[in-house]
Amino acid sequence: MAKDKVVLAYSGGLDTSVCLKWLQDEKNLDVIAVVGDVGQEHDGLEQIKQKALDLGVLDCQVVDMRQTFVDDYLSKALYANAMYENKYPLVSALSRPAISKHLVDAAHKYGAKYIAHGCTGKGNDQVRFEASIMMLDPSIEIIAPVREWDLKTRPEEIDWAKAHGVPVPATKDNPYSIDDNLWGRAIECGVLEDPWCEPPSDIYTMTVDPADAPDEPEYVEIKFSKGIPYSLNDKQMSFLGIILELNKIAGSHGFGRIDMIENRLVGVKSRECYEVPGALALIEAHKALEDLCLEREVLHYKLGIEQSWANAVYNGLWFSPLKEALDAFLASTQQCLSGTVKVKFFKGSCTVVGRKSSYSLYDYALATYDADDAFDHGAAKGFIDLHTLSAKTWASNRRQEGASADVFSAEKAQGPLKKGKYETVPEIAEGDDCSDIVEEAEQAMYGAAVKA
Ligand code: ARG
Q: What is the rounded distance in angstroms from the CA atom of residue 336 to the CA atom of residue 360?
């Protein structure tokens, strides 16, 4: 009897290679491995494919997804200036739905009943894969081997691999978990799990240490048409080409490193390091053009939409109706977003130093303090009268009712602040015995001193 088929998201690394073998041996499935090229560093796609074939897959598809990734995913992220928690440009969160789309396509092509991925049960990526797959085809069943098997540590996984004929990389084990694509690189685990530990310089590969960056600044002019970049320093290039080039330029000036504590969807805070030189430079430039061209109310409203968009995508809802509706709003705002932005890279920074556009809403005559000033200064008085009318009405009511001026002071209105014992920090000199202070504090907090 023919075996059931499973499409596996395959990278060629140890985890997904063990997944591959495990699906064959433990689940008795025929495996179709899909390798998605989203611009990550790899040791050669042909080699990765050969490795899967050697392990006896039914087929191994290597898909160059870079163009779709740029056109259908990164362009929307740029429209949204997408940054989760105002810091992280969603590197991995953007690639997961793109890869999922190809996994579902492959499942349909090969008549596979299952799709499998190599994510752990603790991260966001499992959610993104599974939510995307479910929304694209709810009839496909998902297998997450890493969540199911009881290989708890890396050495256990290596032992299993050796016992089952899965080649184990001879290179020294990388202590970090890395995920990368055109939009940047995410680095987790190892010493980074201590939030106090400064990231060792060897975690970075796309950016130089800002201290080692050139002593001369570099200026770059980026031209946008309808929100998408199309020219770098007056040289016309594809969006994909611009990302690759800006990764190099910005990275060579040490720009684009992020070290943050991030709130995962599954409720865990994790320490994450990223390097996103090109993505961050493009987002900064894109925002600067929006500052110039978007009408104030649209710009302000868009800030909230951007945050909702980033949250939806971070949380795996790329194919959701909410995300689609937000995309429609964003696309509308980009219709007249064309122009040029000048940025300056220097020692780890990227600063926008100039912007121009034929859609600019910046009006010199309105803005200037010189003789050319066309702003109606006389109109300001009436404007302020009406702008403040509501609050003035409130204020005069309070005054008539005899409320003292104190009513306007938050502290007085709420009564005096309770003065607690530890309101003021006790002065402690080096070498002081603090045990009585600690005991008292514990007494106050827990009702008893905590025994060591
Ligand atoms: N924390 C980031 C996110 O959730 C990065 C995840 C990177 N994945 C990995 N396998 N290292 O998007």
A: 9
Ligand 1 centre distance from Cα of residue 234 (Å)? 35
Q: Active-site residue 212, yes or no?
A: no
Active site residue 259: no
- The domain locations on the chain are 5-173, 179-294+337-365
Encode pLDDT of 363-402 as tens digits: 999 999 999 999 999 999 999 999 999 999 999 998 888 8
User: Ligand 1: which atom is nearest the Cα of residue 124?
Assistant: 4
Q: Is 177 a catalytic residue?
A: yes
Is 10 annotated as ligand-binding?
Answer: yes
Pocket of ligand 1 (CB under 6 A): 92-93, 124-125, 177-179, 186, 188, 262, 272
What class, spelled out in words, does domain 179-294+337-365 have in CATH?
Answer: alpha beta
Catalytic residue among 66, 96, 271, 355: 96
Domain 5-173 adopts which CATH fold?
A: Rossmann fold (3.40.50)
| Count of other CB atoms within 10 angstroms of residue 434 | 10
pLDDT given at position 117: 98
Report the distance separating Cα 424 and Cα 437, nearest Å.
Answer: 13
Residue-averaged pLDDT of the chain: 93
Q: Tell the residue number behind the tokens 């009881």, with chain if given.
A: 150
User: Higher confidence at residue 414 or residue 360?
Assistant: 360
How far is it, in rounded angstroms, from Cα 197 to Cα 191?
7
* pLDDT value at residue 412: 55
184 C-alpha to ligand 1 centroid (Å): 11
Q: Which residue minimizes the CA distance to atom 8 of ligand 1?
A: 179
Q: What is the reported pLDDT for 309?
A: 98
pLDDT of 360 reads 98
DSSP 88: B
Residue 423 has pLDDT above 60, yes or no: no
Quote the tokens at residue 153.
Answer: 């540590």
Convert the pLDDT of each residue in 324-368 to its tens digit.
999 999 999 999 999 999 999 999 999 999 999 999 999 999 999
Question: Would residue 125 show up in a list of annotated catalytic residues for this protein?
Answer: yes
- Residue 310 CA to residue 323 CA, distance in Å, equals 9
- Residue with structure tokens 């991995």? 92
pLDDT reading at 425 higher than 70: no
Backbone φ and ψ of 417, nearest 5°: -65, 140
Phi-psi region of 111 (alpha: psi -120 to 50; beta: other; left: phi over 0): left
pTM for the predicted model, two decimal places: 0.89
Residue 107 burial (CB count, 10 A): 24
Please tell me the distance between residue 440's alpha carbon and the centre of ligand 1 in angstroms: 43
Q: Is the pLDDT of residue 145 over 90?
A: yes
